Amino acid sequence: MGITELLWRFPSAQMAWRNLGRNRIRTALASLGIVIGVISIASLGITGVAIQQQATSDLGSLTNEVTITSGEDSTTAGVTADQVDEVRNVAGNVDVVPQYSDATTISSRNGQEENVSVIALTQANVLYDVSAGESPERLQSGVLLTDSTANQLGIEIGDPIEYNGQMYRVRGLIESDQGFGGGGRGQLVVPESALSDRDNYDSVTIVTEDGDAATEIAAILRDHFNEETHNGEVDEELSITDYSDVQENINSFMNTLRLALLGIGSISLVVASVAILNVMLMSTIERRGEIGVLRAVGIRRGEVLRMILIEAAFLGAIGGLAGVLISIVIGLALFQVLAGDAVIVFEWESARYLVYGFLFAIGASVVSGLYPAWKAANDRPVEALRG
Amino acid sequence: MSVIALNDVVKRYQTGHETVEALKDVDFRAERGEMVTITGPSGSGKSTLLNMIGLLDTPTEGHIRLDGRDVTDFTEDELTEERRSEIGFVFQDFHLLPMLTATENVELPTMWDTSVDRHDRAVDLLHRVGLGDRLDHRPDQLSGGQRQRVAIARALINEPDILLADEPTGNLDQDTGRTILEELTRLKEDENIAIVSVTHDEQMVGYADRVVQLIDGEIQ
Predict the structure, then answer these.
(1) CATH of the domain at B85
(2) Residue A307 above 90 pLDDT?
(3) What is the per-residue pLDDT across A40-55, written as a single tens digit (0 to 9) for each?
(4) Which of A25, B53, B180, B206 is the most exposed place for a label (fewest CB within 10 A)?
(5) Which residue of B has its CA nearest to A287?
(6) Which stretch is the leader sequence (chain B) (predicted)?
(7) Rounded to the nearest 10 degrees, what angle do helices A24-63 and A348-378 cross at?
(8) Tell me, what DSSP letter sits at residue A228?
(9) Domain range holding B136?
(10) ipTM for this prediction
């Protein structure tokens, strides 16, 4: 009785609620369409978010980086230590990793050889994830090697590798499938000290939170280092590369995907609202005499209209609510599988599709109720009473 | 002053290419505390006349006065307001809403007026028509006679000046019909209202203060 008592204060709502209760099976079937519609919208929207998160975390290791090398108009070869300090100041609170690069050939005990690029740096953990061993915060002794190269040469953690006339122990194996790029060649990561006889760094890598931050920092750095000269040309002191194009492409692809998924979802809600239109039309035609009685005893047209519109809105709300609940379950499962963290579904990024689905359900139902309501309210009572 | 008066009312319908004259220069009036019964063969225009009196239909020619006010040219919304405050309806098929209890059915015409609570009057009316023990019953739990009593109580909830009854005993057996007629007679005096009914029922004619016979749209 709780809900009925509350509704008593709103006669149209009260009557609408009672009318829905008269034919529960029909009410349930009409809402079922809406349930399916909301599930399609919400779960397809959530799927889009899940796919995007998955893609960003897969590709993110590349697009969140900014690479700095010596510019065309630089007076020095490479990036100087002063420039690195300046980059640190301008870029703010992000990881700035200066590095030397080189190439070498590693050979296994049985004489097999493999060409690898050599990177000399200190903050190994910022750039490299390892599949075995460790990726130290400060690499001062020992080296990291790409795991596929290590496999090929039969090198294991703890084995010695000779580089530049010095012996190093392998401390970690780098996951070989990080991002794209790398050119398929293996990498040998050595301490900065191995190449510290060089004057300048070959490149600097900045690692930011995400692709958008990388784009932003790249722009700030370009502004700072590469001043436009009076004749309109840019004096390129440092060459600053980010992957904003790639990031943009990913974003625009994701948006297209999301829209396509939502479009598919909306179609089912449109179908559902046609079902509601049909049900409301049938039920008002069936109750034609009854509505005639209401009009005869002095119930206003607006009141009849409101009653039927609220009936449609209730159908939408019932279906919408059920749809949202089911979508939450689907979303939990989806995020558990794709991201390993089910509760992401409650974050606004994905939860908003639940809200959209619900609002869309009520909106579509009310729109579907308009014609039946208008028709019932404007039926002449004399004719409606005749049945 | 007559509570309702029709002067020279003509009603024409267009059916296909033919024009049917359902009412021809009808003069009709009813006073408070009077039961007028309209009789006549089917197709004589009885229902059309009742619809005119009940402000459900408008005349092609002529005038309708309610309590002396000319309501002929009222819009549909204005007529709705008049029906809401001045007129009560009782139908042959009772026309109760199946999902509402007896009390709720009685309250129905005033349900949208949240400013006045007619609950007490609804209960009182149900007691007066002998349904004090059926307040929370739904229509399908009531007999035909009991349903018509609920309908009568509903027609009186807005304290109308006129109660219109379209074959009120048409779906009831002789005995039940008689009790309904006695009920109406009593209420007519208690509430000082005009009751206008349309019927084929000879028994009903016996309870009328005045009988109006309609044949081919003309009062005899």
Answers:
(1) 3.40.50.300
(2) yes
(3) 888 888 888 888 777 7
(4) A25
(5) B97
(6) none
(7) 150
(8) B
(9) 4-219
(10) 0.91
